[in-house]
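Two proteins, back to back. First:
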Amino acid sequence: MAESTDIKKEHQDKIKEVFSEVSKIVVGQEYMVNRLLIGLFTQGHILLEGVPGLAKTLTVNTLARVLHLNFHRIQFTPDLLPADLIGTLIYNQQKSEFEVKKGPIFANMILADEVNRSPAKVQSALLESMQEKQVTIGDTTYKLDKPFLVMATQNPIDQEGTYPLPEAQVDRFMMKVFVDYPTKDEEMEIMRRMSNMSFDDKIKTMLTKKDIFQIRDEINKVRISESLERYIIELVFATRNPEELGLKEEQGYIQFGASPRASIYLNLASKAIAYFDEREYVLPEDIKEIAMDVLNHRMILNYEAEADGVDTKFILDRILKKVPISK
């Protein structure tokens, strides 16, 4: 028992060092790194949204280096085909037979850059890979490497010529994380680093695949009380029927509430938050901390909300203040 406790403490210390190593290359963005690690350790995929130039690609690439994982970046474009993503059969004239050429989806960490730039067939191929953890090329099905994490980015501006992800497909992402601008001090540091042509980008590998699988098991053992499980259910149900909490005005803005996946991911993510804080149990604050990222893309608002300038963040803020913690 003492040995497993020591290993757990060692893993928690290494996670802190992961943040330190990433910060050698990326200024700020600890919030994004935190959410990416939660996704990695709980087998959930992440949708990142932010304007260009906020180091989304650099952060994901650096994190893959620190974790010593195979990383592929895929730039989604309108002419991309499913075969460009998962691979295809190529005829070998010398052997007179077809050979499999695997696509870039065969990696541990995938960055699907500007996923809304590609048509539905390509998006479906990616989302099927995320859900099934496998792809079919010809008549053969291939398992994807483990661990497998997809981080897709969306550009919130310049929507002309894009193919927005259908709501049912967006629901497959564990979290939708909004990446914000750096602070003035952070942007000063970014400017200085990028202006220094002798910038040192050497970083250490902090976690192995074995460590990642062990951390997953340790997170699963984090305790969550029945009262907090009920609190999660109440939060999710409040996104469907806020009128039951006295939020009649908010009810008029909601077309569809969060799906049952929201309950599952709130449970898993709150356990990860507790684990990062070196606790063996979940607190209500853990659920509240992660609720916005897990729920914001699972609520579908109607045209009245858009007309009145109401977004999911506003409604979720009201719900989090209203839902009581069960005793």
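And the second protein:
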Amino acid sequence: MGVTDYQYILIGGSTKCGTTSIFSYLNDHPSVCGSRIKESRFFWNNKYTLPSTGVSHINGINEFDDLFDCKKPTTHRVEATPDYLYDVESAKLIHQHLPKTLMVFILREPISRLQSWYKFAKQLNLFDANYTFGQYVDDQLKSDNSSKLQHMRALEQGRYSTYLESFTSIFGAENILVLHYKELSENPLSLMQKYVKGQT
């Protein structure tokens, strides 16, 4: 089978919302093969700086096939790059090259997600020791949302509706699945049975 012959499930967002868990659960399904790189960023269009994984649509769609090393016969493939949500050009590239794609987005209450980003950035020593959560919020409120630093876009990226509208207009509502982090964290089995079982 060629790269375009599979059904794809692309977890396209959002960051700090449990995408790794959903990716792992789907990869365990007997009909699904997960990519060997969880965040391949294959269709990422460099809207802001993310570390390169060494694979890209720039080298042709067939290179996407190299991300999957399936040991079992499968009909579906899953890949997760949470930042896809924030770039309409990535959405267009995915739709152009992989028309049989279900886009999955996991959303989290925005303040909780913002706090998670703050803690994560502190762990990475991206702020000095005295930098407070209040300062983190204020600095983003004062910005023009053009920062190339991913952790300084967390407030703006919590406004999910604008981004989802772009994906819905490109893929159609029937090819968009929105899940909620609260349900994922409280009862992951229930969430998977409720929403995902029928997609594979």
